[in-house]
Specification:
By secondary structure, this protein is α+β, with helices and mostly antiparallel strands. It has three domains: about 10-195, Immunoglobulins (Immunoglobulin-like, Sandwich), CATH 2.60.40.10; about 200-225 and about 265-338, no CATH class; about 225-260, no CATH class. It has helices spanning about 1-20, 30-50, 50-75, 245-250, 280-300, 320-330; strands spanning about 25, 80-85, 90, 95-100, 110-120, 135-145, 150-155, 165-175, 180-195, 215, 220-225, 230-235, 255-260, 265-270, 300-305, 310-315. The strands form four sheets. Strands 1, 3, 5, 6, 8 and 9 form a six-stranded mixed beta sheet that branches. Strands 10, 11, 14, 15 and 16 form a five-stranded mixed beta sheet that branches. It has a three-stranded antiparallel beta sheet with strand order 2-4-7, with no helix packed on it. It is elongated, with a radius of gyration of 30 Å.
Length: about 350
């Protein structure tokens, strides 16, 4: 079955590429007014036979030709590259950079607008998703791009839900030079990134908090050594008994004793997934678990993550943080009780 459907999909994609025009042209409001003026002048010239009206008509028609040539020169050679931030969190604003490159050697591009396009959830899988299955992610504008130069522009992206985020293409358009037409071309640029769950501020034992949620429980164990190996700067959550006051006064900043056998606290966050449904309650529990993970890692603890069927070993650092958040971004409820 798969051997028969794959050639069909490939044939459909090829047909769509051939039938899709390389540029789309749409008159603006000023363009429709200009068309009405051309029709009026042409009608008057035919009725009166006045040579001056024929001259005005020819000049107006030449404006249309010149507009098409210059707008095509503004779009030809444009390439766009997307730069995503290292982490994307749901319900948070992030800046996405678009690098616009004019690859032409002698001609500058003017009034170029670039719109980044996303694939709506549930429609991913077709390389050329229809326009009805896409939604704009953000838009940026460049007034002038010199030949063989790059311009960096930003737009604000706010993902609403966690999980995979599929980028589809760029819509590059211009109204140059007279604003009579909006010429648009589509540059295919599929890319998939992962949106982490939203993170709230959560009080931990290191920050003086005592609260624990019933859905994301944590167990902490820690012990402190007695062999002093040196001094380091005071960090948030260090007990006052470890402050070396003599060196702190001398350096005009808090300094604490560092031990050789110091073992940091280890925390295990438990997320209940069995006998759950995909509703707002489960999403709140995932959000709480992600907040616990980020808070304890920020407090220099080793953090493990456990669901009813899986367990991720304890660790620390940026890579481990992203590993846990990526797991929480993809986790789904299990309707069957474990």
């Amino acid at each position: 079955m798969g051997a028969t459907t794959s050639p069909r999909r490939s044939w459909r994609r090829t047909l769509r590429r051939w039938l899709r025009p390389p540029r789309t042209l749409r008159p603006t409001r000023a363009g429709w007014i200009f068309f009405a003026l051309i029709f009026g002048v042409g009608f008057a010239a035919l009725n009166t036979g006045n040579n001056l009206l024929y001259l005005v008509l020819s000049l107006m028609l030449s404006f249309l030709v010149l507009s098409g040539v210059l707008s095509e020169a503004a779009l030809r050679g444009i390439a766009v590259r997307r730069r995503l931030p290292a982490e994307l969190h749901a319900e948070s604003e992030h800046y996405v950079a678009l690098e616009i490159h004019n690859r032409q050697r002698r001609v500058a591009s003017f009034a170029v607008a670039v719109e980044d396009v996303l694939v709506e959830p549930g429609h991913f899988g077709d390389d050329l998703a229809p326009d009805s299955a896409t939604t704009p992610a953000g838009r940026c504008f460049a007034l002038r791009i010199a030949p063989e130069r790059r311009e960096l522009r930003h737009y604000t992206l706010r993902p609403e839900i966690r999980g995979p985020l599929h980028f589809h293409a760029y819509r590059v358009s211009t109204r140059f030079p007279f604003g009579l037409f909006l010429k648009t071309m589509v540059i295919q640029a599929p890319e998939t990134t992962l949106v982490f769950p939203a993170v709230d501020r959560v009080a931990t034992e290191h920050t003086g908090g005592r609260e624990r949620s019933a859905e994301a429980q944590a167990w902490t164990r820690a012990r402190e050594g007695i062999d002093i190996s040196g001094l380091r700067e005071h960090r948030r959550g260090d007990p006052a008994r470890r402050v070396h006051w003599r060196h702190s006064i001398r350096r005009a900043e808090l300094v604490v004793r560092e031990t050789d056998t110091e073992v940091r606290g280890e925390v295990e966050v438990h997320l209940r997934t069995s006998a759950q449904s995909s509703d707002s309650g489960f999403e709140r529990r995932v959000r709480r678990a992600a907040s616990e993970v980020v808070a304890h890692l920020a407090a220099q603890s080793r953090v493990a993550l456990r669901t009813d069927r899986e367990r991720l070993d304890a660790g620390s650092g940026t890579q481990h943080r992203r590993r846990l958040l990526a797991f929480l971004a993809r986790v789904q409820p299990d309707p069957v009780r474990a």
